Amino acid sequence: MKRFRALVCLLMLLVGSATAQQVKYIFLFVGDGMGINHVLGTELYNAAVHPEMDNGGQLSFTRFPVRTYCTSHAVESLVTDSSAAATAMATGVKTISGYMGVDADKNWIENISEVASKQRMKVGIVTNVGMNHATPGAFYAHSVSRGIYREIFEHYLASGVDFAAGATILCRKKEGLKADYYINKAREAGVYVTQDSREAADVKGRRVLLLSDSLTRRTMRYAIDRTESDPTIVDFSDAAIKYMSREAIDSGFFLMIEAGHIDHAAHDNDAVTTFEEINDLNSSVALALKFYEQHPDETLIIVTADHETGGLALGYSNYKMALDRLAHQKMSMGALTRRMQQMRKTGKTSWTDMETLLREELGFWDKVKLREKDEAQLKKTFEKNYLENGDLVVGLYASNEKMASVAIEILNKRAYVKWTSLNHTGAQVPLFAKGCRSAEFMECYDNTDIGKTLKRLISK
Q1: Statement: the pTM of the whole predicted model exceeds 0.85
Q2: pLDDT, tens digit, for every residue of 232-289?
Q3: In sequence order, which residues have a C-beta less than 8 Å from that of residue 13 and are 6 or more positions away?
Q4: CB atoms < 10 A from the CB of 329, how many?
Q5: Which of 9, 12, 99, 101 could form a disulfide with 142 if both were Cys (CB 3.0 to 4.6 A apart)?
Q6: Residue 88 and residue 95: Cα distance in Å, rounded?
Q7: CATH of domain 23-313+423-458
């Protein structure tokens, strides 16, 4: 009887292995800096601020059948940077913060893109920050420094990446080079370079590099600040999917899409800007879901993050939340900073001028009632930091007026949202998966498990 049961179990395993569907189309979405509270906060914000949204503002990927979380630490620290975290997801191997595509001993590690190329699959890398920045670079480059942008770009040219898209090509000042230099290098290598998403989507039989309308801007504009003519991560994702749908429908593809601006907004501790960037990510995921509907048995969609940024706390005081108060913020902290600096240049430096700006752009006093201590803090900051010194809060990606930082902080607190850090934290990150073989990601407990599982699924 025991032998019979063992034989039955063996036969079931063999049948299951034989009938397991091969993954052909893989979407990996990375919300840079997107922690669990960022996701939940976005849904609560949507419910309060965007009543027009479907499903009460719930994000599409939080309804995926696989919902779990992963640790994200680097080799040398419980708090990782983006290049080490992306390397773990791209290769299945931990490394040191700042390293990209190499292990802690500086040995090159094969990444998912390289595995996919060996299987004759097409590869796409999309981001709304620099295309040779930390996260996208980890999926095609191998470097002991995420800041050697020239080397990272050269690795892109030598890679098997078929479709790449980003805001610009990052350059170091001491290299004395600009984006145009790299564009010429790409064209010499036979890459079709364009700043038009629709044009990029229609390119046939060639590698594509899609860049935004302004090569001098290191990132795209935040969703909250952009105009109708500004390019978006959704535009770039749409172009990539259309390209892949035509060029790789037979061979299959691996497409990594990074919403890198989530991290930047969280570094500024700007809740509204962060939530709107996650909504942009959600819109990109919606495009992948449309593709999934056409190929449900062969498509895998994963949404995750490299690390958490900002230590976001929801309902930190008095068992309350009032996210409807965030509806009155009309621009990002960076845009508010620029408005304040322009006011100073034009001589509009009275408290009345500042009060008018805060009423118009944050809804203070008229729509968001301030406590006496809030108003006192604003006036003190205005007199000490805005008028006298023009003090800046220097972050990883932006330097903002102290006045703008304090104003956004007060608005967040009036909504009962608080940040505990201006940097990354060691918090676990969410992982959502849907489609072919998605159940296997329930066993992902660390970010390296993502890379290991994807490599295994891609290898035939």
Answers
A1: yes
A2: 999 999 999 999 999 999 999 999 999 999 999 999 999 999 999 999 999 999 999 9
A3: none
A4: 25
A5: 101
A6: 7
A7: 3.40.720.10
